[in-house]
Structure of Rrf2 family transcriptional regulator:
Amino acid sequence: MKRDSRLSAVLHALLHMAHHKGPMTSEALAQCMSTNPVVVRRTLAGLREMGIVRSEKGHAGGWVLARPLEAITLAEIHEALGEPGLLAMAHSSDNPQCLVEQAVNAALGDAFAEAEALLRERFGTVTLAALADDFSRRFAAHGHAGAHNGS
């Protein structure tokens, strides 16, 4: 089963935007996200609609954060991405009439719902500022004073 890593990739790009002086082009962000500029534009369009980023046109244009890091939560970013599933596991639906499958799915369904609710709640409390602070601490602990490992 393929995992959806868009949230992680977007957070990576947003932290680069936060530390960059001025707008970042889709091409530069594509390098950060290991994807192509079309994917960046498509992905950031949802974030623009939620007021998380904005695009600036022109020669020196590109993408910038539309709000302070403290005002952007992981929950908002997750929502802007279309609320992709948070868990890669799922229950079986091969034989819905099977009473064993029904019992297993009921137990798993409750557990999955509780886990997703806990993740969503946690996402509402984590801001981009907290991630940026954590990055800065890690960066300082490694004694770096420039870009970090090219990513």
